[in-house]
Amino acid sequence: PEGKDVDFALNLEPINERLSRAEETGPEYRFEEPPYTDLHLDVEGRTVLVQGRVRGELTTPCSRCAELTSVKLDVPIRVVLKPSSERSRPGEEVEDLGLGYYDGKEINCEETAADLLLLSIPYTALCSSDCKGLCPVCGTDLNRDRCSCIPTESGDPRFSVLRQLKLQ
Asked: What is the pTM of this model?
């Protein structure tokens, strides 16, 4: 009746494997240490309420300067799990991150925590909010060095006529 507390580290290899499959369409991410999960499970009838947090730190290239940076994630978890027998008919299901299903008498908390952790990863990461990035001409890291490139007009040349507009 008082519920159950569950604390565990996520298995690092499957998470990094899922991240490496996503590299084809996005940036490179990697967890160096296993993310850690603190959960509390409450059972009411056949429904299980899973609440807690999953925390981890991943490394990825900065979106501006391409230097490796770390991103700390602290993701709240609140999921209602129901028996798979209560699932809607195929084709009528509504995607809801706060609702899941379980089979039998075991609940895979690791899968739920890993899914929510991976969904919280930002698509772009910065090493710092004031990162200057790379020079678009020579590629110099402007956080470390200055370059002698002459600034070029930025933007699409097809829109250059818009720069001549004077708004009143």
From this structure: 0.77
14-36 residue pLDDT tens = 999 888 886 666 678 999 999 99
β strands within 27-139, DSSP E: 30-31, 36-44, 47-61, 68-83, 99-102
Pairing verdict, β 47-61 and 30-31: antiparallel
Residues 6+ apart with CB under 8 A from 141: 65, 67, 134
| 68-to-58, 59, 71 alpha-carbon distances in Å | 10, 6, 10
Q: Give the rounded distance of the alpha carbon of 17 from its chain centre.
A: 14
43 token code pair: 């059972």
* Structure tokens belonging to residue 159: 């829109």
Instruction: Give the count of alpha carbons within 13 A of 163, CB side only.
Output: 8
